[in-house]
Amino acid sequence: xxxxxxxxxxxxxxxxxxxxxxxxxxxxxxxxxxxxxxxxxxxxxxxxxxxxxxxxxxxxxxxxxxxxxxxxxxxxxxxxxxxxxxxxxxxxxxxxxxxxxxxxxxxxxxxxxxxxxxxxxxxxxxxxxxxxxxxxxxxxxxxxxxxxxxxxxxxxxxxxxxxxxxxxxxxxxxxxxxxxxxxxxxxxxxxxxxxxxxxxxxxxxxxxxxxxxxxxxxxxxxxxxxxxxxxxxxxxxxxxxxxxxxxxxxxxxxxxxxxxxxxxxxxxxxxxxxxxxxxxxxxxxxxxxxxxxxxxxxxxxxxxxxxxxxxxxxxxxxxxxxxxxxxxxxxxxxxxxxxxxxxxxxxxxxxxxxxxxxxxxxxxxxxxxxxxxxxxxxxxxxxxxxxxxxxxxxxxxxxxxxxxxxxxxxxxxxxxxxxxxxxxxxxxxxxxxxxxxxxxxxxxxxxxxxxxxxxxxxxxxxxx
Length: 464
Hints:
Helix content is 42%, strand content 13%. The protein has helices at 31-40, 58-64, 79-87, 103-110, 141-153, 155-169, 174-193, 204-209, 225-249, 278-283, 297-300, 305-311, 321-336, 362-370, 412-441, 444-454, and strands at residues 17-22, 47-52, 72-75, 91-94, 115-118, 135-136, 253-255, 267-271, 291-295, 314-316, 340-343, 373-382, 395-400. A 7-stranded mixed β-sheet has the order 7-13-12-8-11-9-10, sandwiched between helices. Strands 3-2-1-4-5-6 form a 6-stranded parallel β-sheet, sandwiched between helices.
């Protein structure tokens, strides 16, 4: 349906450069950027804006666009009318900060419209850009205005690129995507249904030395209070017994406890994963609260260690979507009851890793569903003087950051993406601050060792 066709323009649009933007009128779609960019354009008097959609910011954006010399219209189109509008437009702008599918942009490109797309890290649509001037810096009004002016000044180049965008979108048409999905499902059937996984039977010693797989989450799912209280009692006292070991042998320091002063409700805490005992370190700020730790199923299968992991309040993610869904619902109940749920969004343990690794999104999805705050914590390594100079491995510092709340006004998937980005930025900034402190305050005796350990790390914003 979405293909380039010849459409006659209304007389009132004669000589106008029509820019189209399709999507819900809301904050994250950033229609305001396009309005401000047109105001700064050298060709503002000949640009006519068309916003196809409706939403909560309709009135606000209409007021912003009143003074545009070329005019602007806000309409909700039927599918046939939208196809007609796409084919009578000259340029498509996709300014959204957070986007997963970007279907409207793909439909516009399939009709031959050259796009100008935000390069936001939270938007997947930028991958379809075929020209440097089809991308603009996310949130940058001046850059968007410059890209619009470029395409107005280069009509021949825009016409040639229009055909390239049409050919690109031929691979994204429904019939081709449906065939690819069928092939994918057939692969899943061949690998899982026709060749199902068969678990090996457990030996008697294995059943004795580690929790049974089907019982690893029995505490969190218990309908009785005493298993939860008993688990909390064991976990809290184990951590208290280990505190001298943490301080004397690991050199652990905990900073930022004042950031938890107003944390009264349940929450999700997260941290990087760089030590096999950091699960006991991250519980230290929450000794008075029930603390659940999300752990890999394999950790429960280790002899003896599996029982210790269970006693510390760890719960297994499970191996199926059904198990994970049931666990998430139960954890939401625990959060509502005031408990803390701890995630390692990096997933795997990498001992003494200097830096943050890519995050999985499970913790942030649960935070949005539960409507609770996220408490970021950064576990950093450092060298210290005194007796700690005898340690071969660096000392550890747990830095607690201010809790971050999910955006209540955003759709869940966008709220999760924004929350994850906010937490990543806050943790990276805290880690960068820590490494700068090491660089400026390192003892001379450790300077050579520091340079060797941190030479491969990039320090941004050195003037800050």
